[in-house]
Every structure is written in structure tokens, then in C-alpha cells.
Amino acid sequence: MKIVIISPTYNEKANIEKMIPVLEEEIFPMIKHHDMQILIADDKSPDGTAEVIKEYQKKYKNLHLITGEKQGLGAAYVRGMKYSMEQLHADAVMEFDADFQHDPHDIPRLIAAMDAGADYVIGSRYVPGGAIPKEWGIDRKFLSVFGSLFIRVVWLNFKIHDMTSGFKLTKTSYLKKIDLDHLLSKNFSYKIQILHEVIKQGAKVQEVPIVFNERTQGGSKISQNDQFESLYIVLRLALDDHKRIIKFLFVGGTGFILQYMVTYMLIISGVEQFIAAMLGGEAAILSNFFLNNIWTFKDTDKIKQKGSLIERLVKFNTASLLSIGLQGLATFIAVLLLGEDLHVLGYTIHTALAILFPTIILLVIPLNYFIYNKIVWKTQYLKKSKPAEILTK
Q: Is 384 exposed, middle or buried, given 0-12, 13-18 or 19+ CB atoms closer than 10 A?
């Protein structure tokens, strides 16, 4: 397997002239059966970093250099990833800082995890055996730990512990499916989106414990703007993941109001409560179908072309008869057991209206969302990704 280690640099002359010999003479001889390459993505460092690389290239034929304008850490890594895939034909790429915060002696351990079956290996600071610098102040430690915890909570992913690690090994078969040219960030937060996209693809993820070191030279790459941008991107990606269900619930809310009104009007007109509940349910289902068709599932236009609106409406309504029947059955049983009216806190309310909300929440919404996705709009054909598999050590 050809593995390209990508290191972005800007004024890293002092670090890079030490790092390259360590990689070439200490680390690579330890790695068997892999073609190891180094790619330095330099942002036209004024301190002469590129000149050091060019001098080393005379000795090390697996050392590569690309240069570009300084646009951010993420932009440099993306430039390196694209070059690795398109020009060097890499099977995997490693994101690796040149400033010794990432210990080069951990490189063989990440590669071993991929050899054992992982598709995406994270050098993790927050699993047993991992650590962050003792020299950091309490504020820096809090931000680092809280950052990963915040992402885990918002994404509801508690299997991965270090969400912001910059030391990772990724199979290019997964990177090729990501639109690297249109990431939300060109800076530190690029790594959050790539992690998100790789997880969505169902990659086998493994965390390998690492000790993250304090910089010996230079300053931190993370700014306050990076922190705010990370917050935005985490929330934006979470919203994108759940926007369909959010739209669905909003439409369902309007349907609930319509159903309540129709059911109430029919009951006071003398219609049997369980029949009124079924007719109110049908009114809500028709309303939900048209709103979801033009809004919630608008992105499934290619699927919609397989049948006319009428065909989909008939299919949907037929499939939804079960939910209508459930509402009618629930109402019938409730009226049979509790009577036509309930007396709660001094108020009298029709039983059919009292059980309407719990019936919709517990039965109708889950059933209808399944029907919408799997039968009417068939969104499983548009999104084939599966949850990421987390490998244990």
C-alpha cells in the first residue's frame, strides 16, 4: 500500500529540517510492506522552508514538495490530499504536523491499525494511553476536552472520543467520495467535516492512543476564530443530517392542527368519535403528503420521476391506511374503556381528542416517517451510507 504522509508548513524550517531525517532514517525502516512517501505542502514560507526540502530531495527520492498561497491549514491539507491521490496515486494519506506535536514514532502504530482492518485511524488523545500536554493551561485543556465532547453530544456519536485530532490515517477510497473543493472551512475545522463525511460513508474507524506534545518552536495554529468556526460547522453538519426529520416534524405539526380541527368539527356535528378520528387522520395525511412532496422530500426529484403525483398519492394513501386504522382503533378502545368524555382538572374533553396527541407521537409519526422514506419517496436509494463501525483495539 502506498502511504503518503502530508505535512503542511509555513515557516517551519527549524522543525522540518529535523523531522525529515527522523522519518526517513528512523521511522520508515520500521514499516514493512508499504511504500512510504512524504509530501510537504508549503505555503510559500518566507523563512526558506522550501529550500530545505529541495536540498533533502537530492537525498530522499520519496520526498515531494508542493507550494501554494497561504489560505489556511485546511486548504494546505486539501492541496496535499488531491496531489497525493491524483499525482502520487496514494492508497492512504496521513495528516501529520511537522512541528513534533505529533510523535513520529506513533506512525507505525496507526499503520498497524489500518493493516488490521481499519479504514480511518485516529491518533486519539482521549482514549486510555492518550494525553494532552501537561504544559497547557486549564483554559486550553478545557477547550480541547470540551470541544470533542460537544461534537460527540451534538452528533450523538459516543463511540469516537477524539473528534478534533489532527493526526489521522485515511484510505483514499473514502476521500475520493468527498467534495474537497467545497469544504465549509479552509482552516482548522476542515478535519471536522472530513471526519463527518467519512463516518457517513460507513468507514471502519479505530482510535489509537497518542500523547500530544507541546510545541518546542513556533506558536499554536488554532485561533479564536477557528474555535467559533468549529462550533458553526459542527452545528451546520448536524442540522444538515437532520433537516429532513426537522421538516417532517414541522409538516406533521401542521397536520396535527388540521386533524384536531377536522376531528372536533365532525364530533360536534354528531359523527361517531372513532369515525371522526379516522376522517381527521385522512385530512392530515393528505395535507402532509402534499407538503412533504414539495418541501421535505424535494431533493428526491429523480425518484419522483418514476411515477406521477397521482400514483404516488394512491400508493401513499394506501400504505397510510394502517396509521388511519391505528388511530381509529386507539380511539375506539379508549372510548370503550373510558367513555366518550374525560374529566381532567375540572375540564371535560372528548376522549378522541384527549388521546389524539399521544397516538400521533407514539404510533403515527414513526410509522409515517418509515412509509415516506421506504415506500413513497424511496430515499434509501439515494443515500446508501451506513453508520461507521468502530473497531476495538
A: exposed
